[in-house]
Amino acid sequence: MPPSIAVYERTIHASLERIWENVLDWEHLPWLHKESFGHVRLFERSRDGWRGEASVVGGAPFELDVALDREARRYHSRTVAGPGAGTDIVTELFPVGERETRIRVDFLVPGIAPEHAERVGAVYVGLYTLLWDQDEAMMRRRQALLDGTLACPTREVLVDGAPAQFATVCPHLGGPLDDAPVDGGCVTCPWHGYRFDVRTGRSTDGHGLRLD
Predict the structure, then answer these.
(1) How far is residue 79 from each of residues 83, 85, 114, 188, measured CA to CA in Å?
(2) pLDDT, mean over the chain
(3) Could you tell me if residue 203 is inside a domain?
(4) In this predicted model, what pLDDT tens digit does every residue of 109-129 receive, in sequence order?
(5) Is residue 26 within 8 Å of residue 63, measured between CB atoms?
(6) Is the pLDDT of residue 20 over 90?
(7) Residues 103 and 163 in one domain
């Protein structure tokens, strides 16, 4: 087992159910976390994890295996090939309320010289602070949508000089379309990159969903 170079802890205002949903949501990595991830490509997935190729912005691809242990309330994000191979990021979950979860993230990274461990650990902690900030906001909005407390206004834009109205909630998982760019008559969800023609509401990417 590689050595731990840092530990990150915080309380997330989301239930275990939302966090498990988020961990299994491979598609959001290069969209919600566009400052951090360059791409993701799925190889396989199951109820308890997924495996695929990903990259950080400007970096070479690496193979990632994400495995959930629901009973232990823990999951592993292991780099199994490519840059950082052998790294295991272990996240433990401690419910402290119906919609509040304490997380503890342990960064197990091989090949780091002791004199560099603190600096490299700080980079990982900074990255995960940003990732969890973004994930928490997504999970809270998703929960509000499921609770029926999220306002769902319509938005009007001009396409080729003609007005078009559409709902500001993505029909996939509820992503925000309030300020999402409209290009060529299509709006792109900032959470997962799903695209819709705002004139007809139809998917333009083959997902078969429809805007209200």
Answers:
(1) 8, 5, 21, 30
(2) 96
(3) no
(4) 999 999 999 999 999 999 999
(5) no
(6) yes
(7) no
Whether 139 maps to a domain, the answer reads yes
In whole angstroms, what is the distance from residue 153 CA to residue 160 CA?
23
Tokens 């990982």 belong to: 124
Separation of alpha carbons 148 and 5, rounded Å: 42
Tell me: pLDDT of 45 over 90: yes
- Identify the H or E element spanning 105: strand 100-108
DSSP state at residue 31: H
- Provide the domain limits for residue 193: 154-197
Q: What pTM, to 2 d.p., does this model score?
A: 0.95
Taking the alpha carbons at both ends of the chain, their separation in whole angstroms is: 50
Dist CA 57 CA 66 (whole Å): 20
Mean pLDDT of the region 7-17: 98
Residues 117 and 187 in one domain: no
- Under the banding of pLDDT at 50, 70 and 90, the label for residue 152 is confident
Gyration radius (Cα) of the chain, Å: 19
CA–CA dist 62, 52 (Å, integer): 9
Half-sphere exposure of 130 (CA within 13 A, CB side): 12
How many CB atoms lie under 10 A from the CB of residue 194? 24
Q: Which of 195, 190, 171, 193 is nearest to 179 (CA)?
A: 190
pLDDT of residue 212: 85
